[in-house]
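hey so u asked for the seq, here:
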Amino acid sequence: MCLARSRAVLPVLLIAPLLLTSCFTRNREIKRGTHPGMPTLKNATKAELIKIVSDAYDAVQSFSVVGRLVGSKGSVYKGEIKDYPEVQAYIDFRKSSDMNIVGLMPYVGSTAFHMVSDGKTFKASVPPLSHYFEGDNDSPTASENPFENIRPQMFLSAMLVKPVDPNSELTIKIDDITEQYAYYQLAVVRRLPDGDIEAERRITFDRVTLYIIEEREYGPDGSIVSLSRYGDWQTYNGIRFPSHIDISRPKEEIALELTITKMDMNVPIPDAKFVLAKPDGYELKIIGKPSSPAPADPPKISTPKVSK
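ran it, C-alpha cells below
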C-alpha cells in the first residue's frame, strides 16, 4: 500500500515545479471600464468621499450651459422606449435653486419649450401647443404626454449632487470591485421619525479617478426615482464638471441625455433669465395646486311659525 501511494504521488511532485514556471503560467490583464490595463486604484475613507461630494457642490455657484439634449419616453419595465430628435438646449443655474431651461426645435431653431423655477415653483411654456404651465416642483406628474411632466428641478437634482446632511442622513461606504470595474459606493439613508431608516440615495465613485459616475435616488418604497450617470469630466474655469449626463426617471417614463458643448462656470446671471411671463393667447394650465372649493350652500333660514 505504501509503495502504491508513493508511485501515485511521484508524478504530481514532478509536474508541480513545471506548473509554477513562467512557461506554464499566463498573466491575465484586468481592464476595468474604459481604463486600459490595471491602473493604480485610489483609496478614500468614507469621510473623504463625503467631502468630495460637498466640495463639488460648494464649488459651483452658477453656470450657463449650451448643449445637445436628447429625450425619450417609455421604460425598460414596459419593454418599449421611443427616442425623440435632438434639440439645442440652454440651461442657466444660480444658487440656491434658480433654473432657466430653453430647448430649440431641430432644424428650424424655434422654441420647443421654456421653463424656469425658483426651487419651489415652476413655470413653463410650450409654444408648439400654445400651452403655459404653473405649479409646484413636487406637483404630480399625471399628463399623458411625458414631456409635460418634466420639471426644472429634475435637471438640478441630476446636474448637482447635493451634499450629505449629517443631521438627517446616515452613510455606508461600500468597496465594490471586480475584474470588470472598481467602484466606491456611498449609500445614503434617511432617519425616520419612528427610528427606522430607508434608502435615499446611492452615489458611485470611480476608484481610478474618484469622480462621481452615478447617483441613484430612491422613493419611500425603495424604487428608483432618478438615475443619473456622469461622464467625460472637463475643467471649466478651474472647476471639474461632467460634460455628459444621462438622466432617467422611471416613474415618469422620461429619459434625458445632455451633452455640454459650452459651459460658463460661476458667471453672473441676471434676474431676467429666471422670469417667464405667460404669452398672450396661451392656454393656462395649473398643475398641483388645489382647485377652488365649490361655494357652500347658503344657510337655510327657518320661518317662525305664527300661532293662530
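Residues 46-287 form a domain with the outer membrane lipoprotein receptor (LolB), chain A fold (CATH 2.50.20.10). Helices lie at 2-19, 46-59, 152-159.
lmk if thats what u needed
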